[in-house]
Amino acid sequence: MATNFVDRVVLNVTAGNGGHGVASVHREKFKPLGGPDGGNGGHGGDVVLEVDPQVTTLLEYHKSPHRSAQNGKPGAGDERNGADGDDLVLPVPEGTVVKDRDGTILADLVGFGSRYVAAAGGRGGLGNKALASQRRKAPGFALLGEPGESNDIVLELKTLADVALIGFPSAGKSSLVSVVSAAKPKIADYPFTTLVPNLGVVTAGSQRFTIADVPGLIPGASQGKGLGLEFLRHVERCSVLVHVIDCATLEPGRDPMSDLDTIEHELSEYVADESLGGKPLSERTRIVVLNKADVPDARELAEMVKPDLEARGLEVFIVSAVAHQGLKELTFALAKHVEQARQEVESAVPARVIVRPKAMDDAGFRIVKEGGTHGTLFRIVGDRPTRWVRQTDFSNDEAVGYLADRLNRLGIEEELFKAGAVPGSTVLIGPGDNAVVFDWEPTLQAGAELLGNRGTDLRLEEASRPSRAEKRDEFHNRKDGQRLAREELAAERQAGVWTEHESYRTEE
After folding, report:
1. Which end of the chain is more exposed for a tag (fewer CB within 10 A), N or C?
2. What is the pLDDT of residues 301-323, one digit of tens each?
């Protein structure tokens, strides 16, 4: 049977990539060396989950499970920075729990406007204008934009309600919700009519609370039989549990006491998320409702088992949803328990926020020795080295030299020596299979080093410009040199002096 209610999805979110920086030189008439003017790239957009009261299901993400934010724009010359990518805001229902693939809870979104950044956008790369300094006056490179994060997250919707009605299929839970609130759930005389939780608002005196009709449970629901796990998930946030027992059932082997014991067993077996702050289901306030008392045999059975249930310490109500019997007493009792539960929450000591500042001697990276098929590998793990590598254009020798300088200033070369690395050792920077692999040569210089300091231009170091006379003398000297070369070549031809290049000689 098709339904528009989806309460669990696996969502792939990808943040925007940062825009690349640009290497550019300012060009203006009579100013051939105007200096670097490359702009920075824009930051990539984040993927943000935000609680929206207008959204009640995760159906939209079930249909489209891949979501991506906008990339940042690249920089341009004339110091023009690229635009930042727009954040992608995904509305989710209140009560959505965000988990990773391993089941670890990342966020519990409760309250209008609650937000969680599911994937952070990449930083934009710096242009050569931002990379210029006193020692590096004319950088011939720029940094690349950092790729955005890509994560697979699990969204689970756990209904926010004060009271949950639980019980076997066709016990009359939907009928009870329809008569005590304004909700209009589907009601029929066959099992599993209710496939999704139905929420209703109940008013009892000055108290208002929400009540949820949880679809019917069967034996083995806590181990996943039927749709038990999906249904029990919606009970986790409810402070009061109401057992709705069908006293008029004609199924063999069923009676109010056995039905109660079966559901209680499933509640005790179900493991709720402790990180959400809720009590185990078996420790929450429970009330028993003996339903369908409008049937004479059912009322007689209800009055017979009521003393036994009360002997267990349970509060018992005999009601009829069809005949509207015993509903007033039930709603006021529920309001009393809900008020007590809310007071306990308000008086609870708030969780202490633990702040762990970074240690003063924290280098920002660590070196891990790994064994491989080709010998010992040295992996450098850390946010900064990984980001620097991702932002480096390895086709530019000057950019590679700049990366080497940054890694050296961070102390990586010294730590590699301490870890036992020798020239030629295989070094990886970054986690997983996306790491950059290279053979470590601590004394190797980049090609740009042979021309002087990286990012320098000897023409920019000239303090004065040649005069007109100096330019004229240089011009005449060059012309004189060309004339003498032509005269020497003509004299050799006239004298018959010919030489051939060594490459054209053949062995005799």
Report:
1. C
2. 888 989 988 898 889 999 888 88
In the chain, what are the domains?
1-157 (2.70.210.12), 163-347 (3.40.50.300), 367-508 (no CATH)
Question: Which residues carry a binding-site annotation for GTP?
Answer: 167-174, 192-196, 213-216, 291-294, 320-322
Separation between Cα atoms, residue 83 and residue 124, nearest integer Å: 10
- DSSP result, 307-376: HHHHHTT-EEEE-BTTTTBSHHHHHHHHHHHHHHHHHHHHHSPPPPPP--PPPTT--S-EEEEEEETTEE
Structure tokens at 299: 């009322």
Residue ranges of the annotated binding site are 167-174, 192-196, 213-216, 291-294, 320-322
Q: What is the C-alpha to C-alpha distance for residues 298 and 177, in angstroms, rounded to an integer?
A: 20
- Return the beta strands (E) in 275-319 as ranges: 285-291, 315-318
Of the ranges 141-145, 214-218, 293-297, 324-328, which one carries the lowest mean pLDDT score?
Answer: 214-218
Instruction: Supply φ then ψ for residue 502, to 5 degrees.
Output: -55, -30
**Which two three-digit tokens encode residue 363?**
């280098």
How would you classify the pairing of strands 115-119 and 47-51? antiparallel
Residue 436 identity (one-letter amino acid) = V
Question: Six-digit token pair at 161?
Answer: 């309600």
Distance between CA atoms of 173 and 192, rounded to whole angstroms? 11
What is the rounded CA–CA span in Å between residue 427 and residue 439? 6
Contact between 397 and 446 under an 8 Å Cβ cutoff? The reply is: yes
User: What whole-number distance in Å separates Cα of residue 32 and Cα of residue 180?
Assistant: 83
φ, ψ dihedrals at 17, nearest 5°: -80, 150
**Hey, what amino acid is at 176?**
L
Helix (H) or strand (E) holding 412: helix 412-419
**Binding site members for Mg(2+):** 174, 194
Please compute the mean of the pLDDT values over residues 34-63 and round it to a whole number: 89
Can you say whether residue 205 is alpha, beta or left, with left for phi > 0 and alpha for psi between -120 and 50 degrees?
left
Q: Work out the pLDDT band at 500, boundaries 50, 70, 90.
A: low
Q: What's the whole-model pTM score?
A: 0.67
Taking a C-beta distance cutoff of 8 angstroms, is the pair 130, 189 a contact? no
Q: Are 55 and 155 in contact (CB under 8 A)?
A: no
Q: Which two tokens stand for residue 159?
A: 């209904």
CA dihedral (254, 258, 260, 263) positive or negative: negative
Number of continuous H segments (helices) and E segments (strands) in the chain: 12, 18
Residue 102 to residue 193: CA distance in whole angstroms:
33
Neighbours of 457 (CB within 10 A): 17
3-state helix, strand, coil in the chain (%, to 5): 30, 20, 50
Q: Within a 10 A sphere around the Cβ of 38, how many other Cβ atoms? A: 30
Distance CA 236, CA 277 (A): 10
Residue 478, exposed/middle/buried by CB under 10 A (0-12, 13-18, 19+)?
A: exposed
